[in-house]
Structures are given as C-alpha cells and as structure tokens.
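Field reference: sequence -> structure
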Amino acid sequence: MKQLTLLLGFLTFFMTYACLGQEIAILKYGGGGDWYSNPTALPNLIQFCNTSIGTKIDPKPETVEVGSVSIFQYPYLHMTGHGNVFFSNEEADNLRTYLLSGGFLHIDDNYGMEPYLRRELQKVFPNKQLEELGANHPIFDMTYKFPEGLPKIHEHDGNRPQALGIFEKGRLLLLFTFESDLGDGWEDPSVHNDPEEIRLKALQMGSNIVEYAFKS
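Structure field:
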C-alpha cells in the first residue's frame, strides 16, 4: 500500500508538470477495434483549436498504447473506433492511474464500440458508472455555446446524442460521446461530404472539450 501511495504521488507530480503543456495523443487499444479510424479527424481538430482558441498542440498527434507509461506524457488522450475494445487488467490499472493522476480521456464512439467499452470501463473503475452530463455542464459553455448539449453529427441509429462521463471528486476525467460521432465531423470535407455547418458544429464542440480539459 505504501508503494502504491508513493507511485500515485510520483505520477500526480509528473502529470502536474505534463498538464502545463498542451499535447494530445491517440490511444491504441486491443480487441480488434479500429482505434486508427478517422485519420484526418484529430489533426483537423488540433488545427482548429490552435487557430480558434489559441492552443499550441503538435499538429501531428502521437499514438500511445493503453498499457504504456508513455500515456503519462500527455494530459489529453483521444480514443475512437467502431468495434470491440479490450483492456487487460494491467492496461486497466495503468489507465486508471493515469486518469486519477490528472489525465483526461475523450472517447468518441465512431459507431458500434459502446457495449464493449462499457464492459471494459468496469475493469478501469469497478465502482463507478458513466453518468450523463446535463446541458448546463461547463463543457457546453466554453468558447462555443451549446445550450442544448452535445450536437448530433451523424444519424447512426437515430438516437439522441449523449455526453457521458466518469467523475472523481467532481472532476470529469473521462468523457464518452455517444450517438453523435464528432470525429466524422472533424474529418476532411471530402470523406463524409457533411454540410459545412455540421462540420463547424463538430469542430466547435471538439474545441470546447479540449479547452475544458486543459483548463480543469
């Protein structure tokens, strides 16, 4: 127990200094899901954030594996995909430590990952459940205003979009965006041929998430 306390203390110290920077990495996970989907999405979001809200994020995000100590170099992780997700116990422990040490994870369901993700998040936080964020949450009231909450970007099953989170002592440390598919809206215009106003909504909401994560 003493060793775990010391480890958490060290990682919290490390993350405090890491969070002074503004960097985002793509989270690579096992299970066969396409963690690499939407290749133009995150670079486009980063470019939008650097232009619109003054961040200085590297325009070419690195990829890090769930079980690697490298995740602690990044205050913000992004995860997406369509299918299966699997975390080993060691990976779940590593991700839990990262999040409790000050890291932030945004998971954007690209369609189809939700049931697998819920199962694996039980390994990460056995005593926590995803909670829906109300439209009055600060993440919808950053530089860009979304008074009705998470915007709908792609139809998928036609259900309403949901922003779900895991909290620790009031801090949102994990955000799961579901039935919205922000990442498709961040992609190059030619990929999905979304109207410009839809793409702009997706980028603005993504910008709010980045802004909130770096300020919280």
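Note: The beta strands are 24-28, 62-65, 76-81, 104-109, 131-132, 162-168, 171-178.
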